[in-house]
Automatic annotation (TrEMBL):
It comes from the Bacteria. Its EC number is 4.2.1.1. Its cofactor is Zn(2+). It is an enzyme of class 4 (lyase). The keyword Nucleotide-binding does not apply. GO terms for molecular function: carbonate dehydratase activity; zinc ion binding. Zn(2+) binds at residues 38, 40, 96, 99. Gene3D superfamilies: Carbonic anhydrase (3.40.1050.10). It comes from Ureibacillus terrenus. Belongs to the beta-class carbonic anhydrase family. The keyword Metal-binding applies. This is carbonic anhydrase.
């Protein structure tokens, strides 16, 4: 049985047995927060439990490395939608230790693409279209610096409301311990004092 068949079989029983009832909520986050975090499998249940979040409490956006790779990409658009249209009034960027993106070697990944059938012509055409494929695929070395970079991109985005706190944290993927890197409330207070 394929994973798709297994999922669909389970889903049919899930719906028929009304197992969805405990999860019914609205599209608006009850705690009015949006979280950008990593797609790491260890965080699927651990992150919400470690933050005391239940279904419906937060908008959760996931990307490799909890990165805002481009200020006008899909991740930033999702954050703006959460803030302007879905009533989120705080943003949390949460990276984690032992992140796979900290070890991504773009050259190795391009070799893996070739092994799975992506032609050199396709790779070259991407390069000639103005995309630096190596840079686009590159990971990061320091999770704290990466989180702070994403926080900075969000805080300074021209369309992001300047009075909305953006926090940066790093989680231990084994214990769920959160380490605060930057408190968005303190940042806004300091900025207000210096303006």
């Amino acid at each position: 049985m394929t994973s798709l068949e297994e999922i669909l079989r389970f889903n049919k029983e899930f719906v028929e047995n009304k197992q969805y009832l405990p999860y019914i909520t609205s599209k608006y986050p009850d705690k009015k927060i949006v979280i950008l975090t990593c797609m790491d499998t260890r965080l699927i249940e651990l992150l919400p439990k470690a933050m005391n979040l239940r279904n419906g409490d937060a908008k959760i956006i996931k990307s490799a490395g909890a990165m805002v790779a481009h200020p006008f990409g899909g991740i930033m658009r999702s954050i703006l939608v959460a803030v302007y249209e879905l009533q989120a009034d705080e943003v949390y960027v949460i990276g984690h230790h032992d992140c796979g993106m900290s070890k991504v070697d773009p050259f190795v990944m391009i070799d893996h693409m070739r092994e799975r059938g992506i032609s050199d012509e396709m790779i070259k055409s991407i390069k000639y279209s103005g995309i630096d494929l190596v840079e686009w695929l590159r990971g990061f070395g320091d999770v704290e610096k990466n989180v702070l970079k994403s926080v900075d991109i969000i805080r300074n985005h021209p369309l992001f409301p300047k009075n909305t706190p953006v926090h940066g944290l790093v989680m231990d993927p084994e214990t769920g311990k959160l380490d605060l890197l930057t408190n968005g409330h303190e940042y806004l207070e300091l900025r207000h004092q210096h303006s």
